[in-house]
Amino acid sequence: MGQPLLILGLETSCDDTAAAVVQEGRTVLSSIVSSQDSFHLPFGGVVPEIASRCHLEVINAVLDAALKQAGVAFSDLGGVAVSYGPGLVGSLLVGVSVAKSLAYTLDLPLIAVNHLEGHIYANFLTGAAITFPLLSLIVSGGHTSLLYMEDHGQIKVLGKTRDDAAGEVYDKIARELGLGFPGGPVLDRLAGRGDATAFSFPRALMGEKGKLDFSFSGVKTAVLNCIRRETEKGRQINLADIAASFQEAVVEVLVGKALLAVRQKRTKQFLLAGGVAANSQLRKRLEQVLTREGVELVRPPVEYCTDNGAMVAAAGYYYLQRGRLAAWNLNAVPNLGFGPLKNK
After folding, report:
1. Which of 104, 131, 150, 272 could form a disulfide with 277 if both were Cys (CB 3.0 to 4.6 A apart)?
2. How far apart are CA 300 and CA 26, in angstroms?
3. CA 168 to chain centre
4. How distant, in Å, are the alpha carbons of 170, 176, 202, 226 from that of 179?
5. Angle between the 166-176 and 183-191 helix axes, to the nearest 10 degrees?
6. Do domains 6-121+305-321 and 130-299 have the same CATH topology?
7. Would you say 134 and 267 are in contact if contact means Cβ atoms under 8 Å apart?
8. 3-class SS at 292?
9. What is the side-by-side strand order in the sheet with 27-35?
10. Is 178 left (phi over 0), alpha (psi -120 to 50) or beta?
11. What is the CB neighbour count within 10 angstroms for residue 344?
């Protein structure tokens, strides 16, 4: 028996600088994440130029910390995996450049990971027995997608958002309410103290039988208009009721589409992924609904829902097993979708 394969994962697609070492695609030996929240907080959202500069400043320290926490040296690694898209191009380029330099210098395989697939593979870090075919719902600040996976690398997009992503809407509403950035965690906590029936917000595309696309621009506009209308009338806004009613609308749509997909595809396993996968109401409601359908819900630990290097390393391991390696001319692809890696 050879030594267990260790993959170094680098993640810089947005505003978190992350590195991790994962053994055999399943066991996390280290996971270091440097957050930039304090830098972007005054602006109510991520500023791309600030994000890329922050990555440059801390990535070496994050990398060193990941190796130290794992108790390994560069010579112990079996590959270098990195998110190369989708994301902010300046941020992506930092991670891609570092990964290419490391892989070339150490004579290791360079593995280019689709950031969205990385989120799916966070579920492989739970210890659950993942079986194909399966369904996956990715819900994050930039993406909301419902996927059917027949096997590793065989992904079909069943539905996606036609406008705003769910996480993006959380951030915009939190900003309007003066709740800071990122908005998801604070709105989730606030919703737990509110009345979800206090306001009626729209559930878009729920009436289109058999359709699995999402739309969240309508609920965003409705909530923002409600806040402004209440303010103009001089009324005291009950933040908890607004948050609870908004979250109820979003979760109802996400769970409803997930249920529809399960009944169409008849899979026995469903993977939740992305930053919004940490939402307490979504995790609870989805588990309740899928359990009644006889479907197992697999959810990453909260720390692996948001961007991290461990999910990239996990995905990278399975990429490597399929011989899916990147060429040295690998570049960042900010609008990358699902599909095979192509380098020209």
Report:
1. 272
2. 12
3. 12
4. 11, 8, 22, 16
5. 80
6. yes
7. yes
8. helix
9. 27-35, 16-23, 6-11, 79-85, 110-114
10. left
11. 5
Provide the token pair at 99.
């990964």
Neighbour-count burial for 186-223, b at 16+ CB within 10 Å, e otherwise: bbbebbeebebeebebbbbbbeeeeebbbbbebbbebb
CATH tag, 130-299: 3.30.420.40
Strands (E), 140-189: 144-151, 154-160
Q: Are strands 79-85 and 110-114 parallel, antiparallel or unpaired?
A: parallel
Distances (CA, A) of 95 to 53, 70, 89, 342: 12, 20, 10, 18
Query: Phi and psi for 152 in degrees, rounded to 5?
Result: -55, 130
Residue ranges of domains in the chain: 6-121+305-321, 130-299
CA distance 168 to 182: 9
Range 6-121+305-321 classified under CATH 3.40.50.300: no
Please answer whether residues 184 and 279 qualify as being in contact, where contact means their C-beta atoms are separated by less than 8 angstroms.
yes
- CA 11-17-19 angle, to 5 degrees, is 55
Report helix angle 183-191 to 239-265, nearest 10. Answer: 100
Tell me how far apart the alpha carbons of residues 10 and 98 are, in angstroms, rounded to a whole number: 9
> Is 0.70 surpassed by the pTM of this model?
yes
pLDDT in tens, the chain (344 residues): 568 999 999 999 999 999 999 999 999 999 999 999 889 888 878 899 999 999 999 999 999 999 999 999 999 999 999 999 999 999 999 999 999 999 999 999 999 999 999 999 999 999 999 999 999 999 988 889 999 999 999 999 999 999 999 999 999 999 888 888 888 889 999 999 999 999 999 998 886 666 899 999 999 999 999 988 888 877 788 899 999 999 999 999 999 999 999 999 999 999 999 999 999 999 999 999 999 999 999 999 999 999 999 999 999 999 999 999 999 999 999 988 775 444 32
